[in-house]
Amino acid sequence: MTERVRPQPMMASIDAQALLGRDPVAIRRRVEAMEAVLERAFVIPGLNRRVGLDAIGGLVPVLGDVITAAMGLYIVWEGRNLGLPKWQLARMASNVLFDTAVGAVPVAGDLFDVLFRSNTRNLKIIKRHLDKHHPATRVVEG
């Protein structure tokens, strides 16, 4: 007789070290997850365009832009934890600042938030750094 195996919740299969660790692999996972939430969490029906909390949060005047800017700055902070050079951190911070400043403009800023993905740009900067300085963190995508 075979025993039934109950499916486990997703979080039960991920250990805490993978989420909270200070190693480059854990940081890469956290940054990728944050970027996905901010830039690609939902699909606009009819357009099949992926958007995230950055674009949706921009619909809430002031508060939405402040919250999504803070979430974007978290990615910059993780880049600092990885030891990125100051010029790359400045570039990442300017991406977030530019996105926040233009995104704060009513209506036009909301459209801009859908098109300009500062967090995706910052993720690319971090990935380049990790691939160069921590090659063991590379993930083969296919």
TrEMBL record:
The keyword Membrane is assigned to this record: yes
- Ranges annotated as spanning the membrane: 55-77, 97-116
The organism's place on the tree of life at top rank: Bacteria
Keyword set, alphabetical order:
Membrane, Transmembrane, Transmembrane helix
PANTHER family in alphabetical order = MEMBRANE PROTEINS, PH DOMAIN PROTEIN
Protein name stated in the entry? DUF4112 domain-containing protein
